[in-house]
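Hi R.,

Here's the chain you asked about this morning:
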Amino acid sequence: MKFICSQKNLSASINIVQKAVSTKTTLPILKGILIETCGQKLKLVGTDLEVGIEHYIEANIVSEGSIVISSRLLGDIIRKLPDADVEVEVDETNNITIRCENSEFTLIGQPSIEFPELPAIEEENIYEIPQDLLKNMIRQTAFATALDETRPILTGVLMEIQEGIINMVALDGYRLSLRQGNIKTDFNNKAVIPGKTLNEIHRILSEEENSKVEIFFTDKHVLFQMANVRIISRLLEGEFINYKQIIPKEFKSRVKVKTRDLLDSIERASLLAREGKNNLIKFSVKDEMMTITSNAEIGRVFENLRIELEGEDIDIGFNSKYFLDALKILDSDEIYLDFTTNVSPCIIKPTDTNNYTYLVLPVRLAG
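And here is the predicted structure, written out as tokens:
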């Protein structure tokens, strides 16, 4: 095999497929990137058997072939080369020579026959979604997946497509994040996609409104396809929690507050809250004022915020981290905080759209 391509394109391609390469695997072949000629293009593939990424780039193919090269080593070498054409040549014994201007590297590769094939996915029942919308939906949900593997289904995000509406839902037992969007399709579907997969897709997606992502499902896998990239992931098995039952339908107290002001106040209060055991902050809502307090052995903090209150006064406690996570991903200037009782979930919603709902459980206050 022999090909010539630009250092920039090759480096960018390695960077994309490396996102699927495992560093912890006991199988040496999975620590490598498969490089294969495909007509007049070059295909790079990385996989950890859970998720696989294929990327195609333009190249001058001198002779066809394929090879597996150490991902870490290849990435480091190509990144350090000058911005010029890179020539890669592989002989019959899997020796690889990389040349660029005044540099020459010789590496030992592995035969591609040992590299696992990515699952084949029938490209029918296509769902098309703008890249910027999918990127935003992932940003506003995947952070709320569980990190604990004891309930594997909660480490994923439910993607639910029904009658032209796409919902993405994540929950970890302490909070729930729901983002809604519109999609043109006649097909309904639902599947749970690993949070790790979606986080990698988020890094690859662009924010262009006109660029589309094509999504295809099988019973066990999902394929995301865009421009020159294909990402194939296994789906999580099991029944996702009926999230609609968890979200309260009514409230007794509704607070309207500026997002940035609340974020800044909680960040300051959490400087002391994190000195305690559970990042506890307390909201005291009365009339047109919300007081945020935090007590720790080393001191106390009080924050006062102007609000608009509809309904009853309330005192309620929260883990500050769960509140901050939501406030950081909200794009609206003002939000509603809906409360029922001081032991019931709080619902956070933007005031200017109905496409996002965040639920967070309170912490019981002593006394």
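One quick note: The chain has three domains: 2-114, 127-206+217-244, 247-360.

Cheers,
M.
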